[in-house]
Each structure stands twice: as C-alpha cells, then as structure tokens.
Amino acid sequence: MNYSVNFLIYICRVIFFRKKAIILEKDNSLINQLRKLFDYLTEDSFNYDIRFISKEDYEPLRKFYKEYVVLDESKIVHNLPEFLSNRKKKMIKQSRIEHYLVNKYLALRSYEFALQVLRKEIHTIYLLASSIAMYSTEIKNEEKINISKIKEVLKAENKSSDYNPYIDYLIEISKNYFGAKLPHIFSTVIGSI
C-alpha cells in the first residue's frame, strides 16, 4: 500500500477527531487491506467510521454524504468546514504533530515494526486523551484550570512523561472524540492568576 503522507495524516485526524469519512477506492482488493490496517492500528483504542466506496457509486449519492470527509488517495474530495484546513494556528500545530507521527512510521524500514510503532503511538494518544476527558468530569463549570493541572493529572496516572508537545492536541482530541467539557484553559500559570 503506497499512500501519501497527507492521506495518512488525514486518516489520523479523521480517527482522532471522530469524524465520518469515505475513502474512494478503485481497487477492491485494497479495501480489505485498509480495513485490516485500520482495525489493527485502533485495536483497544479509537473507534472509527470510515467507509469505502467506488468513485462510480459515490457520484450519484454524494448529496447523502455531506457530513463526511471524502478522501481520494492523496486529496480531499469533500471537506467539513475548517476540519482539515491548515489555515488556523491551532490546525497548523496539530498538523505538525500528525506529520511527526506519520513520518516516524514511514521512516522505519520494517513494515511490521513500523505498524507496531504507529499502533503504540495511537494507543498512547488514546490513553492520554481519555485521561483528560475523565479529568474533565471532575471539574466544576466555574473552575479555572491551566495546562499544568492537566499535566499533573497525566503524571499522577503515570500515563506519560513526555506529553508537553502534545498537550494542546490531546485536549482537542479529548473534546472532539470523547466530548470532554473543559472550561477555559489557561496555557500558562501566569494566565490563571
């Protein structure tokens, strides 16, 4: 399977942010391989809603898939507003994290080992984001929190010691995937005073 870096980044973002997606695929034999790949990578972690449809079947039914991100190999055929856009500052930062994740996977020479590494990364992201979501259920609506409080929660649960570059991204995943309700979060301790 030779998919572009962008395609893999789009798939990660679709899965992490619980969006519905359609992949337009010409080759039916690849559909089963992709399903097995996504099932393996997300086992014991994220659920996903990715469907595979041929271009011919998609065209007459495209009006029924307005709530889906539609991907065709390396390009986006239909996008949800601001979902895969890199124009916003936050999206650019998220894209860098996804880029790092995918490039780390692609840099490994052994396909099987690369899949194990990517699966472990995805599972770690799932655990950290779910911890933040669980923490959000304990927060009172009027309570103000800062990033350092979230870091303390993750550290106390021994989930990770290297979460600093991902913390904003994990917060976004916990909101979008797990539906976490987090009040305004200050990015610095000074901002919370």
Task: Describe the 3D structure.
The chain is α/β, with parallel strands linked by helices and 193 residues long. It folds into two domains: 1-107; 129-192. It contains seven helices and six strands. A four-stranded mixed sheet has the order 2-1-3-4. Strands 5-6 form a two-stranded parallel ribbon. Helix 2 links the parallel strand 1 and strand 2.
Note the quaternary state here: single chain
Largest sheet: 4 strands, mixed
Number of domains: 2
Shape: globular
Spatial arrangement of strands, main beta sheet: 2-1-3-4
- Bin the helical content: 40-55%
Unreliable stretches, pLDDT < 50, 5 or more residues? Answer: 188-193
Tell how many strands the DSSP assignment holds.
6
Helix-and-strand structural type: alpha/beta
Question: Count the helices. How many?
Answer: 7
* Cα separation of the termini: 51 Å
Strand content: 5-15%
Order of helices and strands: HEHEHEEHHEHHE
Look at the structure and give the mean pLDDT: 78
What gyration radius follows from the Cα positions, in whole Å? 18 Å
